[in-house]
Amino acid sequence: MEYRQYQPPRVLERYVRYFWSFDSFQNPNATLQIKSFADKYPRLIFQNLDGFEALTNLSGDKLPACYLSGIDTKHTEAIINGNFSHFGVSFYPHGLAAFFGESPVALINQMPDIRLICPAEIQSQLQRATNHHARVSLISKFLYERLRAMRQDQLINKIVHHHGLDRDISLDELGRHYRISTRSLQRRFKAVVGISHKKYQRILRFEESLKQLANASFADLGVVAYDLKFTDQSHFIKDFSAFSGMSPYAFAKRKSVGSESSSFIYTKDA
């Protein structure tokens, strides 16, 4: 498998974290599980279906060739049989509102076909592209044109970039800092990001636990829980399981063969 990241042009970097590609040319008979956990970063995902297999959900339905994935607040699972070639955009939490003008609230835990969101022929253009570098150029132009047509909430933009990784700062503190009422800030944050600031911080803490558990043992779970300021280990396990569908110990024990953000790829028999 080959996973790569590509930097966005400067004009997009306030809303786009990076572009990425993920390709597998190893075993056409392999069956892989993609477990996606809670994730504060929405995405656009393109599946190259020219000689490659499509992702399917657990009901056996194929996912669209090109789709948006809103912020995830719960875990999902998909299956892929054979080789694949994917290209994607990892947005900052306020990215979907910036480019598509859709209510991010309506896209929480959803994966709509891109053709339902905008009329542009971006899917066919990405399919015709001969390589991922060409897709970077195409998607950059597409997003820039959409960004110019949308109004942006600069306050939420500042909060995401200046305080977006702060697990402890409260809405009251942010409101005082930016001289806005807590209630107004709460409404604006949810309207632009899609989830409440409280849930955003819960996901932020969960994502930090994923990083720490990557090199942890069962004996370290209490240390991780303490470091992330859970009241006790049982609350940590409950919160982690709600966002991932597995216990912290099971996640630490099971080794993935690849990952992108909070999505992890496992062999079917692992």
TrEMBL record:
Keywords: DNA-binding, Transcription, Transcription regulation. Gene3D superfamilies: Homeodomain-like. Pfam families: DUF6597 (PF20240), HTH_18 (PF12833). InterPro entries: AraC_XylS_family_regulators, DUF6597, HTH_AraC. GO terms for molecular function: DNA-binding transcription factor activity; sequence-specific DNA binding. Residues 153-254 form the HTH araC/xylS-type domain. This is HTH araC/xylS-type domain-containing protein. It comes from Pseudochryseolinea flava.
